[in-house]
Design goal:
alpha+beta, two-stranded antiparallel ribbon, 4 helices
């Protein structure tokens, strides 16, 4: 079985960049994604998108989806990579997954990994690509759908929440976010 880990994570990173957006979906079509954020923060706007990747065969295939939530002082992205044929994802730590989101020019000051519900979390500071804006963030990942006889998984739900202010996202906000992520698979 082809392990399309790097290609899948790079495809996931490309989907959340405005420079290379996936097909943006209308509100009704966003409801057709296999991931949802039950209660987006008040005073925020939301957009979503989805894109298939890989050519099948030995190259593997899959689908990436994302939900981007822009608040008055924050940006949050929840993404889902689903493995298709001949594809699975190796379990990675939060730091390794965050390095695949190309929105970050650089990251530093990594905290320890912690847990909230089903998700593994890790705080970090980042500089956004293009603008040079410094943000305080928390990244999160959850792998599900173990592939029998492998070390891989069918699904990766991941993302980040970054604050544009001097204080990092509050623990209560992150706990509410990750507990409010819903999906149609296991």
């Amino acid at each position: 079985m082809k392990r399309l880990v790097a290609g899948m994570l790079l495809a996931m990173a490309a989907i959340v960049l405005r420079a290379q957006p996936a097909a943006a979906l209308s509100s009704g079509e966003c409801a057709d994604l296999s991931i949802r954020v039950k209660t987006p923060p008040a005073e925020s706007s939301m957009r979503c998108g989805a894109k298939d990747f890989g050519g099948g065969g030995d190259q593997g295939s899959g689908r990436d989806e994302f939900i981007e939530i822009m608040g008055t002082d924050s940006i949050t992205v929840v993404s889902h990579s689903a493995a298709g044929t001949r594809t699975y994802m190796l379990r990675l730590g939060v730091k390794e997954v965050m390095h695949n989101y190309r929105i970050f020019e650089s990251t530093d000051n990594w905290g320890d990994e912690t847990e909230s519900g089903r998700f593994t979390l890790r705080r970090f500071d980042a500089t956004l690509k293009g603008s040079g804006t410094k943000v305080r963030c928390i990244g999160f990942v959850h792998f599900t759908g173990h592939v029998a006889n492998t070390t891989g998984y069918r699904h990766l739900i991941g993302g980040y929440s970054c604050s544009f202010g001097p204080t990092p996202p509050a623990d209560s906000r992150i706990d509410a976010l990750v507990s409010g992520i819903d999906y149609d698979f296991e």
